[in-house]
Amino acid sequence: MYTILCDSRNNIWVGCYGGGVNLLQETPEGAVRFINHRNKLKNYFSYASYNIRCMAEAEDGVILIGTTKGLLTFSNSFDQPEEIKFYRNIQRNGSYPSLMGNDIMHIYINSHKKIYLLTFTGGINEILSDDLLLLCSNKKNGVGTFIPTFVGQFSID
User: Fold this and answer.
1) What is the value of pTM for the model shown?
2) DSSP secondary structure string, 66-130?
3) What contacts 96, CB < 8 A, 6 or more positions away?
4) Alpha carbons 150 and 99: distance in angstroms, whole number
5) N or C: which end of the chain has fewer CB within 10 A?
6) 20-26 and 12-16 as β-strands: parallel, antiparallel, unpaired?
7) Cα–Cα distance for residue pair 53/75, rounded to 1 Å
8) What mean pLDDT is predicted for residues 63-71?
């Protein structure tokens, strides 16, 4: 297990580095089971999203999952796990707006509900809209591409 998130609907999500995303559920008998791409999460991009680094929930119930191969998003508004539709955003060379790097190390949501993604080699990316348009730090706007040496709390308010 690499990260854990309890969302606004009290779903418990476990992100594993090597096992993808798992929804923790309790059976009527009280047993705990993990729902994942091997059973009920049939729409999950397992081939590209085994290595999860971080998770966060946006204000509108959208779950954001930072993986080593891009950003996954989905709505936490579902009745059955099989209904979840996952969306994948990746770096597209020569395309703007796009992630500047696929290896997402941290997701930060500030007090103004702005969402920032810290990528391993692509700097800081800001999500600008519900369509996940991204404003990226780069040499053109004064911030060079970097490899972060510390991933922890940072503030962009």
Assistant:
1) 0.82
2) EETTEEEEEES--SSGGG---EEE---TT-SS--S-S-EEEEEE-TT--EEEEETTTEEEEE-ST
3) 136
4) 20
5) C
6) antiparallel
7) 19
8) 94
